[in-house]
UniProtKB/TrEMBL annotation:
One Pfam family this sequence matches: 5_nucleotid_C
Organism for this UniProt entry: Marivita hallyeonensis
Name used for this protein in its record: 2',3'-cyclic-nucleotide 2'-phosphodiesterase / 3'-nucleotidase
UniProt cofactor(s): a divalent metal cation
Keyword Ribonucleoprotein: no
Catalytic activity, as annotated: a nucleoside 2',3'-cyclic phosphate + H2O = a nucleoside 3'-phosphate + H(+); a ribonucleoside 3'-phosphate + H2O = a ribonucleoside + phosphate
Length: 651
């Protein structure tokens, strides 16, 4: 039996009353306004709390987004609340449930509990849903009171997508009642279909290989969308946990939202995965997007940031067309839960919805106890403020732990005796996370929360066997972090804002310089664009020039070893797949050492360029560590509009 779209009644809250959308006012007898609400990339951020910093945060939390939901439903209009995936992993609460408490049959995961309280009406799987394995995933999903759909992941693949035995239902059709402009209720069938990047088979091969397969997103959509129409779907919403990338379709593309919108029969695109906001100025020049109209590939769309930072809203004016409905017009908006002020402070724009906090209060308290547990000590501060411009202690401890572990694992194998290097990248290095998004662990106790802060993801340890030439190209790929700088330039911008910090691998065990006067050999996605470029110079091992034909073992993680980031020397070179997460290895390393001394060994630096200076940004709190940078001349150069401290470096 169809139920009303606005079927959950909430009490008015201090979040404030949201005015009726013009469509709701303008809708005539045969028209109706439907507001679609999206969350995406929640990553277990239920409470407005930063577990890594162990303090409240006004920038995150489903409990805050919930107040926007509550206000919209209070209008008594037609609404749907949907999630776009990556809800199960991503902060210490997720790790606590997965690694400490576990999930037994019948247990409720706190993010599922919160989503049930809010009355979500559908979701798709994101790529991070697979990080803890399929058994954990399915036990968590069992508690959901809403359909979770993903069309392109199959337990058993058939000859065509429609013959697949999918892991979860490929789609769902919701029977709802839609109230028109005259107050009359009419049935509507809303189709939801979900998609996840097929790269999950690389990123979580340990959990997925031999258990599921992943298909191309567009191939799958073209197979299922007509079937949904045949089953009576009036409108179809694509839950695309696939970022906004190229407008042109490619086989097995990761960020497929624009070409997905071109699939006939899809009416709305809810995107995610990229941790960005659409519509916003970020995408002003992106082919296939219209920021002003709020369209992705010509269809109404939205992407609602990450960690509950925004509520995505797509408003549709629908008109009855025969026995069904069609979209007449639309608007899109990503509504934030906070604003950044001119003095760089944060003002919350909404308050918490208490039922969400109350339903997950015990999980929150147990997570706090979990992250505060000490595992050892450090006699050097572990910070990432300068991780993108100098060898760094927060990366060094990760590298040291990986190398320590792989040295043990190589004993008694055909690879024993090969030199072992270690590749690690900074995860918290500002960027989209803001000026407070840095690791900063003082001298003293190291708790689990600090290890989670050092290493954000539940990756597992891998080792690859590579040549010296591949080591060099690995570093060339990593050096895409930096803009090309002309000799003699004054205050040239150093950091490439489009290059993610998690792809800035530092390889320990070798020494090298980065020549910024050279262009990058690779583009952002790892394709060779300047084959003759040589940013990596004076590359040495044990004090001698690195032999391009020599062989090495590199300790790394499953993401990188499996091809994540498209680094040379990865993808088909894996010689060891560890059962342990990198975090667990770091904890074990600290426990065994008792007290660690992870001071940077300064194995890399920029090649000097006389008379040249560059500007880079970091967190304001990094100033206290600037004097520790060996052989570097830095001076403070003010702040930017986003609240980052600017530093000038003489090359």
């Amino acid at each position: 039996m169809p139920i009303e779209l606005n079927r959950r009644g909430f009490l008015a809250s201090t979040a404030g009353f949201i005015a009726l959308h013009p469509y709701a006012v303008q809708a005539s007898t045969n028209q109706a306004h439907l507001r679609i609400m999206e969350t995406t990339d929640l990553h277990v951020h239920v409470h407005p709390y930063d577990y890594y910093a162990d303090r409240p945060s006004d920038r995150v939390g489903l409990s805050r987004v919930a107040s926007i939901v509550e206000g919209i439903r209070a209008e008594a209009g037609n609404s749907l609340l949907l999630d776009n995936g990556d809800f199960l992993q991503g902060n210490p609460m997720g790790d606590y449930i997965a690694y400490e408490r576990g999930m037994k049959e019948g247990d409720m995961h706190p993010i599922i509990t919160a989503m049930n309280v809010l009355g979500f009406e559908g979701s798709t799987l994101g790529n991070h849903e697979f990080n803890y394995g399929l058994d954990f995933l399915m036990k968590a999903l069992a508690g959901a009171s809403f359909p979770v759909v993903t069309a392109n992941v199959a337990k058993t693949a058939g000859a065509t997508p429609r013959e697949d035995d999918t892991l979860v239902p490929p789609y769902a059709i919701l029977d709802r009642m839609l109230v028109d402009g005259a107050g009359e209720a009419h049935p509507i069938r809303v189709g939801l279909i979900g998609f996840v990047p097929p790269q999950i088979m690389t990123w979580d091969r340990r959990h997925l290989e031999g258990n599921v397969t992943a298909r191309d997103i567009l191939e799958t959509a073209r197979a299922y969308v007509p079937q949904m129409r045949e089953e009576g779907a009036d409108i179809i919403i694509a839950l695309s946990h696939s970022g906004i990338g190229a407008a042109e379709a490619e086989d097995m593309m990761e960020n497929a939202s624009i070409p997905l919108a071109g699939v006939d029969g899809i009416d709305v695109i809810l995107s995610g995965h990229s941790h960005l906001v659409f519509p916003s100025s970020t995408y002003a020049e992106t082919p296939g997007l219209d920021v002003d109209a709020g369209t992705i590939g010509g269809k109404p769309g939205v992407m609602a940031g990450f960690w509950g930072s925004h509520m995505g809203l797509v408003d549709l004016l629908l008109e009855r067309d025969g026995g069904g409905w069609r979209v007449v017009s639309h608007t899109s908006e990503a509504r934030p839960i906070y604003q950044r002020n001119e003095d760089r402070s944060i003002t919350a724009l909404v308050e918490d919805f208490q039922p969400v906090l109350e339903a997950t209060a015990q999980d929150h308290e147990e997570t706090l106890a979990y992250v505060r547990r000490a595992v050892g000590k450090t006699d050097a501060a572990l910070h990432s403020y300068f991780a993108l411009v100098a060898d760094d202690p927060s990366v060094q401890i990760v590298s040291n732990a990986q190398r320590w572990y792989i040295e043990q694992m190589m004993q008694g194998t055909p690879h024993e005796g090969l030199p072992i290097l270690s590749a690690a990248a900074p995860f918290k290095a500002g960027g989209r996370g803001g000026p407070d998004y840095y690791t900063d662990v003082p001298v003293g106790d190291v708790a689990i929360k600090n290890v989670a802060d050092l290493y954000l993801y539940p990756n597992t340890v891998r080792a690859v066997r590579v040549t010296g030439a591949q080591v060099k190209d690995w570093l060339e790929r990593s050096a895409g972090m930096f803009n090309q700088v002309e000799a003699g330039a004054a205050d040239a911008p150093l950091l490439n804002a489009n290059f993610p910090s998690y792809n800035f691998d530092v390889i320990d065990g070798v020494t090298y310089e980065i020549d910024l006067s050279q262009p990058s050999k690779f583009d952002r996605d790892g394709a060779v664009i300047n084959p003759d470029a040589n940013r990596i110079v004076n590359l040495s091992y044990n004090g001698a020039p690195l032999d391009p034909n020599a062989e090495f073992i590199i300790a790394t993680n499953n993401y990188r070893a499996g091809g994540g980031g498209s680094f040379p020397g990865t993808g088909d070179t894996i010689v060891f797949e560890g059962p342990d997460t990198n975090r667990d290895v770091i904890v074990r390393f600290i426990v065994e050492q008792g007290t660690v001394s992870p001071r940077a060994d300064f194995n890399w630096r920029f090649k000097p360029m006389e008379g040249t200076s560059v500007i880079f940004e970091t967190g304001p709190s990094g100033a206290k560590y600037a004097s520790e940078l060996q052989g570097m001349t830095l001076e403070e150069a003010g702040t930017n509009d986003d609240g980052f401290a600017l530093f000038r470096m003489q090359l």
